[in-house]
Fold this protein.
Amino acid sequence: MDPVPALKEPLERPLKSVLGPATAKVMAEHLGLHTVGDLLHHYPRRYEERGQLTHLADLPMDEHVTVVAQVADARLHSFASAKAPRGKGQRLEVTITDGSGRLQLVFFGSGVHKPHKDLLPGTRAMFSGKVSVFNRRLQLAHPAYELLRADTEESVESWAGALIPLYPATAKLESWKIAKAVQTVLPDARDAVDPLPDSLREGRGLVSLPEALLKIHRPHTKADVADARARLKWDEAFVLQVALARRRHADAQLPAVPRRPAADGLLTAFDARLPFTLTEGQQKVSKEIFDDLATDHPMHRLLQGEVGSGKTLVALRAMLAVVDAGGQAALLAPTEVLAQQHHRSVVEMMGDLAEGGMLGGSDQATKVVLLTGSMGTAARRQALLDLVTGEAGIVIGTHALIEDKVQFHDLGLVVVDEQHRFGVEQRDALRGKGKQPPHLLVMTATPIPRTVAMTVFGDLETSVLDQLPAGRSPIASHVVPAADKPHFLARAWERVREEVAGGHQAYVVCPRIGDDADEPGDAKKGGRKKSAEDEAEKRPPLAVLEVAEQLAKGPLSGLSVEVLHGRMHPDDKDAVMRRFAAGDTDVLVATTVIEVGVNVPNATAMVIMDADRFGVSQLHQLRGRVGRGSAPGLCLLVSEMPEASAARQRLTAVATTLDGFELSRIDLEQRREGDVLGQAQSGARTSLRVLAVIEDEEVIAEARQEAMAVVTADPELSAYPGLRTALDALLDEEREQYLEKG
């Protein structure tokens, strides 16, 4: 009998068997904590020193905060109100201080009696609540509080040690209640199974897992916290890298058909027609891909390239090589608009080489078919037939390609565009379509810093295209501060008119669509944040339909303005894109549908409204849609945010650098890593709790090395029961998709 399960019992215990049912319920619902182990891994966000007070001066607005401070004074006021017309209403105002600033607390109604008794001047306590502004002063209304007395046994016990841990909390569960719960389960930390091999731990001088858990929750000194964090970072990095290394190892065991291009086949014919030479980068990356295709286990490669670096051409050449070798290639796109567009551009690039079996087709030609969900039955039947007979060498489509009905003659290569929109299930479903697993090439235009690539796409080898092809023009970007300088916005519309007068076209991008079906959440989000950036945030984000109407009537009257957004019928979308591509439309007002892959070389200007509502990488993606021809591009980032705000600094960063990798670092530092690792949307906590992808570059790189060594020597990890347990824990709780976010 395998002894492993016995090892993990104590930490597997459900919280509801240890804590009160109400507390356990809140922990499960609001913090996603279900077991003793989950709670032990819910680390403090920061620590307060007993003798040192929180900086009240820099409290974040609208956030749930916990502060340790001293009561300066408390005053009870009576007032008249609808409920207490005779001046019987009571309001308790308490001022607390920490040396750096003062903060007002308010209690109303019958809720004033207890705090009035407890909060005497000079009392120290922890206060927890939501920071708001009243009469231009910061205040906490009805905060929860916990007195810090040195006299009672209980509080000495729970606040012992010089450092008070403050936990990520919620309105339903204050930090000190979490601390008390942790206190209850802390003895179980002694039974925590250590996932790190002893040799690794000793070699790097890391403390044991039980010790790390004790030190992170009950540190006596800052050194304790540092030791604990250093150790826990390693756990996260190492277990994650082992999971990825095992996946790479398993993939490397799979058989694949080597695909070598024929000497003077389709690829040679295609290259001979290219009107330009490949950039050095394109040649280097193509060689890496062709070398992989020639081996007898499947290629798994991530192709990263700036917007417009010519990734599609590199991918197309790989597809042609496979067709040459007698196989078929499939290109998967995340949306129908993109699939149609890829199909158009591939057919254009190939010319008569895409007309296999047709009159006028070249001898080496093959057939290129499109397969999407909204195709008519007849067209779809023909496409499926071409695939199963092998008539079509190249198929381009959405995940309609993955359906059971779709059969290939001999699928040799799958190219996935914009990887992060495809789950591993789809990857595996497509794999199953080949007689043997096909080779896989993943393309992404989002520049991913090396460590994130190692963490998110750790099971793929990476190729990077970082030069722009000749003939691409630089893009000038400027921030347009609409609130501070309204005349700048007027000038922006003049610039759009000038571009159109010069025979070019422009995009205007908005965060929302603006029909009634709009997600109410969007508008609310805009209204909920109250801060220095209050004014700009009060109104909902600008919407495509409203902006298009205002522009057509006002600053852009006389120009042809059309709209494009995700809720239009696919045929309508396609018609709009066709008219824009053909130059019939001067200005396209759109949502971020155009972010990925829209290629209109004649579009030279882009105005992004409420640019502060988009992420840094997203702005960079959007901007890549202009300057695709020989005329220089212009991108104007319109924002009403005040100059000093973080949002404006982000925009300035985008305006001042065209280097996507640099921007993705800025983006990462500003958002939590969890967003980058894909769990932001689900609201679940990220698997990374102390590991910061950017700062801990070294740890991740070293953990990857160590993980590869362990897995190569012992793929089943039979010598490492603790590591196996940790791995199961990482891989079960719906984390599979986080890991394979691919």
